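Office hours follow-up: a student asked to see two folded examples consecutively, so here they are.
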Amino acid sequence: PGLVMHQYQCNGVLAGIAICRKGFPNKMLYPEFKARYNILAAKAVAKAKNDKSAAGAVMDVIKLDKEKFRLGHTKVFFRAGILGFMEEVREDRIGLVLAWLQA
């Protein structure tokens, strides 16, 4: 049992389980988040000093409750269902931009 627990710890499995237990099963690296959701707050993202502050700026602009996400050292963590909500907000913004371009 000790060897198995050591292997889990070395592979990061225990950290992943701890994160899921706290209720944040979905995660995304900052560069990936910034590339995907930049459209939601382009001005704020452009002013951000780093990717972490850019992610925080996006969350502030869309007024996402701070209980729904956490900003880690290298990743954004989301509660269940929040990535789906983020995708809906993103699709709505893309639709607005396309409608504006066609007008």
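And the second, which I mentioned at the end of office hours:
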Amino acid sequence: MNKHLCKEKQLEARVLRWNENYEDLVNQFDWIICADCLFFEEFQTDLLKTMVQLLKPGGQVLIFAPSRGSTMDQFVNLVNASRSFTVLLNAMQYDDSVWKLHKENLKKGSEFYDECLHYPRLLHLSKEVRQSV
């Protein structure tokens, strides 16, 4: 870890179960970063609820995950239906070096590389800031 870079902050790591409530962490985070967390469709709603609970208003989420059939698209639909986030970016091509490696691996054939399983798309979300009336 880069704890030495966080001189004014206490760092803590803990396991989060998406179907549990974390009252001590409500609206505590500016950023959530996820990698390959969407493939169990039955947990996507719990993941989304956890993100809503933990992020500050205006907080950001970066999700890197392969399409895995339609799991990424299903999550995007869930996000849109929730109205809790704005989708800022849903992209295949987000970094030149990653894209170059992707193109090289595609040439090696499906027995080596399946973009649906191996290539991470980028989903960037921003939590809505609710205005009180």
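Two things to take away from it. The chain has a mean pLDDT of 90. The first strand starts at residue 29 and ends at 35.
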